[in-house]
Amino acid sequence: MKLYWKYFAIHLKSQLQYKVSFLLMILGQFLSTFSAFIGLYFMMQRFHQVEGFSYQEVLLCFAVVSLAFSLAECFARGFDTFSTMIGNGEFDRILVRPRHEIFQVLASKIEFSRIGRLLQSLFILLVVIIKTPYLWCFDKGLTILLMILGGTVVFSALFLIYAGLCFFTTDGLEFINIFTDGGREFGRYPLSIYGDSILKFFTYIVPLALFQYYPLLYLTGRSNQPLYIFFPCLSGLFLFPAYLIWKTGLKRYQSTGS
Amino acid sequence: MKKYLTYFKIRLIRGLQYRVAAYAGMATQFAWGFMEIFAFSAFYRSNPSAFPMEFSALSSYIWLQQAFLALYMLWFLDMEILEQISSGNIAYEMIRPIALYPLWFLKNLSLRISKAILRCFPILLVTFFLPKPYGLALPSSLTTLLLFLASAALSLMVVVAFTMFVYIFSFYTLNSAGIRLVILSATELLTGAVIPLPFFPEKIRMILELLPFAAMQNIPFRIYSGNLMGPVIVQALLLQVFWAIVLIALGSWWLNKILRYIIIQGG
Hints:
The complex is a heterodimer.
Chain A: H1 2-17, H2 19-47, E1 49-50, E2 53-54, H3 55-75, H4 77-80, H5 82-87, H6 90-95, H7 101-108, H8 115-131, H9 138-169, H10 181-186, H11 196-205, H12 208-219, H13 231-234, H14 239-251
Antiparallel strand pairs in A: 1-2
Helix pairs in contact in A: 2-3, 2-8, 3-8, 3-9, 9-12, 9-14
Chain B: H1 2-15, H2 19-46, H3 55-67, H4 69-72, H5 79-87, H6 90-95, H7 100-128, H8 142-169, H9 177-191, H10 202-208, H11 218-224, H12 231-261
Helix pairs in contact in B: 1-7, 2-3, 2-7, 3-7, 7-8, 8-11, 8-12
């Protein structure tokens, strides 16, 4: 852990070296989240509600998902760019060092510019919480916290799967974007609006709904099932298959030789 | 003229090589298109009277967007040109007796077209056969189809002319990633890539429809789906011609100005 903080500090310092570029990246991240938000705002202005969910409730969804995504992208970015690491032989250097390879890949890249997305989502979340008094109690606060953590874990696991698949294909697979970028884009709305089969898919296969939809039911008082508070923890199980894919890939890893 | 066409052809053929990547991309686009349509249909069910266009027109809009993603998405840039600018290899380009602006313009054009050719046909074909309001509808008449094609070509001009400014701006910074992200994410919403322009509030939409961003994917897709009809189409096409000329003129002037004063560090 101490080593990780050391990496953390080094990454922060090195990214702050190019100040203008760093600020522009933050601004760009901010704008891209902002345009997603404006899109959502205009839709909700026009329709007022979607499948019974009000603007505030949808906003809660949007903020939690984009917060979780930006956290995952900030810390697990090393997996997202893993195909370059395999491509240029950097991964061979990692294998010979006496630390766990997942730790090293995690520490190899920390993307601080994601703060542009993070702060904005945090701001939206706070505004929603302030505006909706029924959220002001311990169990609902805990639910929101778990939702964010669960989301970060699921998105990180998806990045890990993406990296694990790189062992087999050398190049990145565009298809996984559906779940990472797609999860962020489509997770702005409660996943139930896409229909039953999609909801089932995102519950049992790629558990986005476990941290987004079910806890939201509890938050908004649609359900009194207190178990829903802890559904985000369940989504942590997704790490196991992700890790398995990574391990299998690692076992058959052959260097590209460059 | 011939040398430009040769460049265009080389890039086109090279772009057509990456077939597996194209298939993987297509699968992604199908899934993406379906999710978009499901989301809009949830809104439609919630309040059909607030829906600003026919639902089938919206489906056509989204499938065209997915099929022609490579043609109209602004973030689709030629990494080679960006690389040349930041590494200084642009010097090699400058000693050739070819004007850079038209060369880069054609390179981008061929890159986009080659990617689109690989991806668009399967998507168009499959979505034609989807059940009624969710699939790609046939255009209402032959005229509509011809107008769509004309407008699609003009859109491509406007898009490429606009992305030329991204290359131009990256002359000013060491690391162009930041400036690129800012330009692209600021404009994505305005082109109608996030939600189609008819879904914007009336007043904002009226202003947006005069900007160059509305002269990109917005116009051809709405002509095709029958959302734009009659004399409005002529107006829209004129707007596209106007912005294409303005952007190309401004871009080539600016690029020439930069090239006159550019200093390339040795190395």
